[in-house]
Amino acid sequence: GKSTLLRTISGLMKTNAGRISFDGKAIHSEPPENIVTHGVVHVPEGRRLFPLMSVKDNLLVGAYNARARGETEKTLAEVYELLPRLAERQNQLAMTLSGGEQQMVAIGRGLMAKPQLLMLDEPSLGLAPILIKDIFKTVRQIADHGITVLMVEQDVRHSLSLSDRGYVLEHGRVVMEGKADQLIDDPHIKKAYLGI
């Protein structure tokens, strides 16, 4: 249900009922490329890079929308500032990177689209614990730069520790929501999701 939510918001899946609005505009009936132009960007689970393209070229793919055009070099410099390892490896093929570096490229590609809302689907999936810390640190920095981040994540403890708010979905419905620090301390969350 959580990944389905992101896919529906981004226009990759059609809604059966209801309405999705962003910034006061209905977007639920628009194709994905138009939704990106509104500032809603989805970084899907599994990275989905172009393995035989360079890091830089993978990043530039994210800038092919009306919202991002014309600011590509400036945005690329901002992504390299936020993710300096990508600048160091900009000419390397994506397939030669570690899993954590590939995830950074996927996030950087999303940032190249100039999002107001960046949706991340399981950014820590399959990564070593030390790399997960780097990914989460980057997510917090993105939010600190004024970009709203909506993250679907199995690692409840770490994701809530860096979030302002949290939402708990069960069977496609929001069953709990609130400030992240309150959710971490909630007895139901501790028992059901943190194993405490």
Q: What is the β-strand count?
A: 7
The CATH topology of the largest domain: Rossmann fold
Average the pLDDT over all residues and give the rounded result: 91
Question: What oligomeric state do the depicted chains represent?
Answer: single chain
Q: Your description of this structure?
A:
The chain has 196 residues and is α/β, with parallel strands linked by helices. It has 2 domains: 2-154, P-loop containing nucleotide triphosphate hydrolases (Rossmann fold, 3-Layer(aba) Sandwich); 155-196, no CATH class. It has 10 helices and 7 strands. The protein has helices at 2-9, 32-37, 55-61, 72-82, 84-88, 99-112, 129-144, 156-162, 180-185, 187-192, and strands at residues 21-22, 25-26, 40-43, 117-121, 148-152, 165-170, 173-179. The strands form 3 sheets. A 3-stranded parallel β-sheet has the order 3-4-5, with helices on both faces. A hairpin with a 2-residue loop joins strand 6 (165-170) and strand 7 (173-179). Helix 3 (55-61) packs parallel to helix 6 (99-112). The protein is globular and about 50 Å long. The mean pLDDT is 91.
What are the defining features of this structure?
44% helix; globular; alpha/beta; two-stranded antiparallel sheet; Rossmann fold; three-stranded parallel β-sheet; 10 helices; 2 domains
